[in-house]
Amino acid sequence: MASCSVNYALMLSILFGSLLFAFAGNFYQDVDIMWGDGRAKILNNGNLITLSLDKASGSGFQTKNEFLFGRFDMQLKLVPGNSAGTVTSLYLHSQGSTWDEIDLEFLGNLSGDPYVVHTNVFTQGKGNREQQFYLWFDPTAAFHTYSILWNPGNILLYVDGRPIRQFKNLETFGVPYPRAQSMRMYATIWDAEDWATRGGLVKTDWTQAPFTAFFRNFNSNACTWSHGVSSCINSTTGPWFSQELDSTSQKQLKWVQDNYMIYNYCTDTKRFAQGLPQECSFIH
């Protein structure tokens, strides 16, 4: 009996370890360094990437695969201290002049001020759908999980599993939705001192450089896209493919938006003096 218990425990240990490995992925297999002249580094046997910014250049990486719908999770630890003027970003982006894009951008700050999460959705080359939030924790002290879920009916943005934004497919009402162009995931760090911190009032302090952000545990449950063919055509997809917000998630979303949203384009009547974008009438 003791031997059976040991063997059972060993099997569970192996299974659990394989699940962790599957979640963590490996950056050597999953991504390519795009730019940065050595400022982007893959470390810890492919389990960690650091992206750095100095006065000469930022850095970034992109996924090897293209996707048409999926759920994407990444753990980030953001630039500590005085990061004013810097932007660390995680986003999906297609190619061409009428591109689609889904953005999570983390705007740096003066030491002690809260980080701002800047979100946007582009369809057919048009954005102007910004929503901004404060984070309710210090994102520089530890890793936190940031997620983009993109399926035929919804775009959902999450922080540690808590939804912060929803963008619904409202094509039946004439609102374009990103569903026809494949996208890669990108991560970058760059200088945006002209707008990132307090609208550009606070500039980058280059004596603090290099500014470094940390990425780990990239996970994608997604339909890969290659030569015009989706990997999901002849196979079943996961629950993410039709996922919507349930009542609990809707309450979580409302909590974030009531307490931590600091800008919503759908309430900016000064900016949209000729009328709010059409989808705003469906956003409560």
Structural class: mainly beta
Q: Give the helix level as a range of percent.
A: 10-25%
Rg is: 20 Å
The run of helices and strands is HHEEEEEEEEEEEEEEEHE
- Give the count of helical stretches: 3
What topology, given as strand order, has the largest sheet?
1-4-13-6-7-8-9-16
Tell me about the biggest sheet? Answer: 8 strands, antiparallel
Question: How many angstroms separate the termini?
Answer: 59 Å
GO molecular function: hydrolase activity, hydrolyzing O-glycosyl compounds; xyloglucan:xyloglucosyl transferase activity
EC number: 2.4.1.207
Function: Catalyzes xyloglucan endohydrolysis (XEH) and/or endotransglycosylation (XET). Cleaves and religates xyloglucan polymers, an essential constituent of the primary cell wall, and thereby participates in cell wall construction of growing tissues.
Main location: secreted
